[in-house]
Design a protein that fits this description.
This protein is an alpha+beta fold. Helices cover 24% and strands 38% of the residues.
């Protein structure tokens, strides 16, 4: 059975994430098969907050080189979650 923790992999702590956190927006790395509705329900279930909207982006893998061999990192999915007024996620 799929749980909320299967959809949300981790919260992203980046410079951009710290800037948009003032507007009650948070960045999450999510499962590639998760939909906006799945992400919204998972965030509300895990963090006990009310979600206003969810925007998702597919992040392509980057070309990397190790010695003389080239390869790509994995593609992944990022979600920007906007919370309703008065809600906040405590990030450690």
């Amino acid at each position: 059975m799929i749980t909320s923790y299967d959809f949300i992999k981790n919260i992203l702590r980046t410079e951009k994430g710290a800037i948009i956190e003032k507007d009650s927006q948070y960045l999450f790395r999510v499962d590639g098969a998760a939909t906006k509705i799945d992400i919204k329900k998972a965030i509300e279930d895990i963090y006990k907050v009310k979600v206003q909207s969810v925007n998702v982006m597919h992040m392509p893998g980057k070309l990397k080189r190790v010695r003389n061999k080239y390869g790509y990192t994995s593609d992944w999915k990022k979600a920007v979650v906007t919370l309703k007024k008065g809600n906040k996620i405590e990030v450690v």
